[in-house]
Amino acid sequence: MTADLLAYDDVVEAFDPVLGLEVHVELGTASKMFCGCSTTFGAPPNTQVCPTCLGLPGSLPALNAVAVESAMKIGLALNTQVADWCRFARKNYFYPDMPKNFQTSQYDEPICFDGWLDVDLETPEGVQRHRIAIERAHMEEDTGKSSHVGGATGRIHGADYSLVDYNRAGIPLIEIVTKPIEGTGRYAPEVARAYVTALRDILRGLGVSDVKMEQGSLRCDVNVSLRASRDGAYGTRSETKNVNSLRSVERAVRYEMQRQAAVLSSGGRVVQETRHWHEDTGLTTPGRSKEQAEDYRYFPEPDLVPIAPSREWVDKLRAELPEPPRLHRKRLQEAWGLSDLEMAAVVNAGALTPIEQTVAAGASVAGARKWWLGELARVANERGLAVDELPISVADVARVEALVGDGRINDKLARQVIEGVLAGQGSPDDVVAARGLEVVSDDAALGAAVDAAIAANEDIADKVRGGKVAAAGALVGAVMKETRGQADAAKVRELILAKLGQA
Amino acid sequence: MPSITRAEVEHLARLARIDLTDDELDHFAGQLDVIIGAVAKVAEVAAEDVPPMSHPEPLTNVFRADEVRPGLTPEQALSGAPAVEDQKFRVPRILGEEP
Amino acid sequence: MSDLTRMTAAELAAAVASGETSAVEVTQAHLDRIEAVDERVHAFLHVDTDGALSAAKAVDAARAAGEQLGSLTGVPLALKDVLTMEGIPTTCGSRVLDGWRPPYDATVTRRLRDAGVVILGKTNMDEFAMGSSTEHSAYGPSHNPWDLTRIPGGSGGGSAAAVAAYEAPLAIGTDTGGSIRQPAAVTGTVGVKPTYGGVSRYGLVALASSLDQAGPCARTVLDAALLHAVIAGHDPLDSTSLDAPVPPVVEAARQADVRGMRIGLVKELSGEGYQAGVEQRFREAVGLLEEMGVETVDVSCPHFPYALAAYYLVLPSEASSNLAKFDGMRYGLRSGDDGSRSVEEVMALTREAGFGAEVKRRIILGTYALSSGYYDAYYGQAQKVRTLIARDFAAAFEQVDVLLSPTAPTTAFLLGDKLDDPLAMYLNDIATIPANLAGNPGLSLPAGLAPEDGLPVGLQVMAPALADDRLYRLGAALEAALLDRWGHLLIEEAPAL
Question: pLDDT value at position C1?
Answer without folding.
Answer: 44
